[in-house]
Backbone:
């Protein structure tokens, strides 16, 4: 049984007993016992463990975990301490510097953001080593879609940062007009120059939060 140790436990209790999730769980048991899978099984739900439902201010959607050794630890775009930031994260730090004059940190560990209310959610939560999207279409998309649907039901506004087509496909789940949607190309080197650089999403998110009389995010790590 999964224990997130916050209000997500009650909100998601039906997910963990659903037919699709039990099938996904069997798939994961087989994968973790026979292949190398990231992140470590104890880290799969770190995004939900670190950012309680009631505390979510910003949702930053990723695709699937990093598939290199020692990188993924359950937070979208984030890597463990002492692991070099991958190119997309480097570009995020470049935009943060341009937008808010925040010097790029030495570490790519974004836990500090998660603890402030930034839900760093990948839409697929596991991956085989060296095989991007290898755990797609096994049930994770249903699970994370339902997480987004629950956030959409909140009365307190949520800011959704949707970077790239994959994340923007989830806009269909965000129907509440009280929520805020910030869209830009993905920070990948393949697309960052097409509008991610200069999007100003970090400052825009804080302007929205301040307008709602909510404490802004300290984006410095």
Residues:
């Amino acid at each position: 049984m999964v224990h997130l140790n916050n209000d997500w436990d009650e909100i998601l209790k039906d997910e963990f007993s659903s037919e699709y999730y039990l099938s996904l769980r069997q798939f994961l048991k087989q994968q973790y016992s026979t292949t190398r899978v990231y992140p470590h099984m104890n880290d799969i739900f770190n995004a939900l463990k670190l950012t309680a439902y009631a505390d979510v201010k910003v949702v930053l959607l990723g695709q699937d975990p990093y598939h290199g050794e020692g990188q993924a630890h359950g937070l979208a775009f984030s890597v463990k301490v002492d692991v070099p930031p991958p190119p997309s994260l480097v570009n995020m730090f470049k935009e943060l510097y341009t937008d808010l004059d925040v010097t790029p940190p030495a570490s790519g560990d974004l836990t500090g953001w998660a603890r402030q209310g930034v839900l760093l959610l990948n839409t697929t939560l596991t991956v085989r080593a060296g095989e991007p999207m290898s755990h797609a279409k096994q049930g994770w998309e249903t699970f994370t879609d339902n997480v987004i649907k629950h956030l959409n039901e909140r009365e307190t506004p949520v800011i959704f940062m949707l970077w790239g087509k994959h994340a923007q496909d989830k806009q269909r789940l965000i129907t509440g007009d009280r929520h805020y949607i910030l869209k830009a190309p993905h920070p990948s080197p393949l697309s960052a120059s097409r509008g991610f650089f200069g999007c100003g999403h970090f400052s825009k998110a804080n302007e929205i939060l301040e307008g709602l009389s909510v404490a802004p995010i300290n984006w410095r790590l």
Notes: The mean pLDDT is 97.
